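STRUCTURE:
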């Protein structure tokens, strides 16, 4: 049985791959690293996502998705962002509130 989009959302991985192969990202990669990005990690994520989508066990699908480059390095967890600490600092408490304003 194929997994639902709540378990494995292929669109997320396809979007990440298309972002990587896009001209803006490739321009930034060339500027920052002196070479174009082959987007191998994102392509491998798509293959893993298809494998997880076809898996009959939802727990096994989640384990496969947890091994992807997207989940380990990007995703919605800001602490693993490649720009955290290099371009901007993480807040301990998110939001506009500061202790000085009280």
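SEQUENCE:
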């Amino acid at each position: 049985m194929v997994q639902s989009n709540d378990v494995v959302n292929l669109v997320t991985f396809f979007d990440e791959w298309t972002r990587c192969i896009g001209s803006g990202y490739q321009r930034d990669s060339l500027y920052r690293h002196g070479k174009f990005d082959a987007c191998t990690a994102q392509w491998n994520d798509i293959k893993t996502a298809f494998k997880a989508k076809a898996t009959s066990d939802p727990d096994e699908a989640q384990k496969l998705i947890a091994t992807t480059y997207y989940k380990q390095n990007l995703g919605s967890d800001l602490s693993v962002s490649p720009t955290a600490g290099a371009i901007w600092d993480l807040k301990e408490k998110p939001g506009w509130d500061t202790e000085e304003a009280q």
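REMARK: The chain has five helices and no strands.
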